[in-house]
Design brief:
Strand content: over 45%
Strand order of the largest sheet: 1-4-5-6-7-8-9-10
CATH superfamily of the largest domain: Lipid/polyisoprenoid-binding, YceI-like
Oligomer: single chain
Helix content: 10-25%
Distance between the termini: 57 Å
CATH topology of the largest domain: Lipocalin
CATH architecture of the largest domain: Beta Barrel
Shape: globular
Radius of gyration: 20 Å
Number of helices: 2
Number of domains: 2
Number of strands: 10
CATH class of the largest domain: Mainly Beta
Structural class: alpha+beta
């Protein structure tokens, strides 16, 4: 077999593998909103992340994550406005992939994690905007300050996880906050005041 034929065969095999993997993923979950089961869910922490992005002196848009999220989601697709979301985010989990910066962000000049170890979000109003999207307004408590924030959420999919056999529903959400309004003012405006939130949320049905 020539090198050209070997490369072509490898590429074909990879294409088939990706197609099979994609098909398998589609069989596991469905984006159909009618498939979501009503009930009380808990956060599945291993696949839930809260990402943030802000300008670094106008040179780059720098990002980081919080993980270890916990909390609950009560949802009934037939009465979406009655949905209740309550999550807790450990500030100590901040991860920018730069250990020195992580330590700085936990300090009193930034999040002051020793005094304010958790951020929380508790929904107060849900407005459905399409079959699979909704605006979630709630109270975000961060750095000892509580302010209303609206997240734009989209259903990613739901179904039974083949590994742990738990019925799981996943969403993605985005929102924007002004960090100085929460008392996190270090280097404003040199480092961006407006922070974009990007959330990947997975929830497992409990009852």
């Amino acid at each position: 077999m020539t090198r050209h034929h070997f490369a072509a065969s490898a590429l074909a095999a990879m294409t088939v593998f990706c197609a099979v993997s994609h098909a398998t993923a589609q069989q596991v979950s469905t984006p159909d909103p009618s498939a979501v089961r009503a009930g009380t869910y808990r956060v599945e922490p291993y696949h839930t992340q809260v990402g943030f992005t802000l300008s670094h002196m106008g040179f780059s848009n720098f990002s980081g994550f919080f993980n270890g999220v916990s909390g609950s989601l009560k949802i009934d697709p037939a009465h979406l406005s009655a949905t209740n979301l309550d999550v807790t985010i450990p500030v100590q989990s901040v991860d920018t992939t730069v250990p020195k910066l992580d330590g700085e962000l936990k300090s009193a000049q930034w999040f002051d994690a020793s005094r304010f170890p958790n951020a929380t979000f508790k929904s107060t109003r849900i407005v459905q905007t399409s079959a699979s999207t909704a605006d979630i307004t709630g109270n975000l408590s961060l750095h000892g300050v509580t302010r209303p924030v609206t997240l734009k959420a989209r259903l990613v999919g739901s179904g039974t996880n083949p590994l742990d056999k738990m019925f799981t529903v996943g969403f993605e959400a985005t929102g924007t906050i002004v960090r100085s309004q929460f008392g996190v003012k270090q280097y404003v405006p040199l480092v961006g005041d407006e922070v974009t939130l990007t959330i990947a949320g997975a929830f497992e049905l409990q009852q």
